[in-house]
Amino acid sequence: MPWKHSHLVDVDVFSEDDFYVVLEEACKMEEVMERPLKKVPALRGKVVANLFFEPSTRTRTSFELAEKFLSADVINWSASGSSVSKGESLQDTAKTIKAMGVDAVVVRNREVGTPEYLINKLLGTCIINAGDGARAHPTQALLDLYSAWRHFGDLKGRKMAIIGDILHSRVARSDIHAFSKMGVHVVVSGPRSLIPLHVFDLAEYEPDPKKAVEGADIVYALRIQRERQEEGLFPSIDEYHNRWGVKTELLRYAERNAIVMHPGPMNRGVEIESSVADGSRSLVLDQVRSGVAVRMALLFLYLAGGAGR
């Protein structure tokens, strides 16, 4: 079916059917990744600019791989290595990109609203949000959804416990939207100072992590940003790990076949225990692989419209 969206700002506008289109397309892209020659001409002649104003390893690398596997021409643009470091404004950067005639921009910025700004400035160019401030990280949510869907199959009626700093997590916001739309009961847990008020409209809040993971099929540990401890938003690192860290002991309260997920990078011994991160229940490396397949699927859908290959 033709893809009806022009830009990807967040997954809150996706219907259940939209999610299934992405998931099924990602399955096809994963098959491409398994070939000896991991390349198809789907986006030959298309130019994609990766515009990253924040440091990134997994997201940027997986987007670049996805673009190259689809035969797109790639421009990597980072703040440290561009005129932005010399004081160039986002408006002037946008004008420069427009003059280059790119077909799509993948953007990450600490400023909320950057994707919408570029949509307005770069008419006719597809904008894909790779993370804006603490608001949204739609491609992470989609790769998380894909990883869980590939593991369990139907997700309806499943329970997901997200543990950690919900307040500052763009991953949590997008994951709550995505998994809820797919019929998953989402429960969040963490220090009350790190739980935003609006979350109560989207997910259940349970301050006790043991109760939060009780009966959970998916236990999702969020990365703790250590600067939050300096701001006094939660107790010491040790206290945080003892109460909210995802450890083997905590998993005893979850379903026996529960999986553990984490968006990376991990703070071992803080939000997650090494034995859990490296254990048989961990889907962390699956998430990394899924990231390439899902981003290939999204680039194909947005730039080729879902037309047959």
From TrEMBL:
PROSITE patterns: CARBAMOYLTRANSFERASE (PS00097)
Catalytic reactions on record: carbamoyl phosphate + L-aspartate = N-carbamoyl-L-aspartate + phosphate + H(+)
Pathway terms, separated by semicolons: Pyrimidine metabolism; UMP biosynthesis via de novo pathway; (S)-dihydroorotate from bicarbonate: step 2/3
Record key words, sorted: Pyrimidine biosynthesis, Transferase
InterPro entries in the record: Asp/Orn_carbamoyltranf_P-bd, Asp/Orn_carbamoylTrfase, Asp/Orn_carbamoylTrfase_sf, Asp_carbamoyltransf, Asp_carbamoyltransf_Asp/Orn-bd
Positions contributing to L-aspartate binding: 86, 170, 223
Domain annotation Aspartate/ornithine carbamoyltransferase Asp/Orn-binding: ranges: 156-300
Domain Aspartate/ornithine carbamoyltransferase carbamoyl-P binding: 7-147
Xref: PANTHER family: ASPARTATE CARBAMOYLTRANSFERASE, ORNITHINE CARBAMOYLTRANSFERASE, MITOCHONDRIAL
HAMAP family per UniProt: Asp_carb_tr
Function: Catalyzes the condensation of carbamoyl phosphate and aspartate to form carbamoyl aspartate and inorganic phosphate, the committed step in the de novo pyrimidine nucleotide biosynthesis pathway.
Name listed for the protein in its UniProt record: Aspartate carbamoyltransferase
Gene, per the UniProt record: pyrB
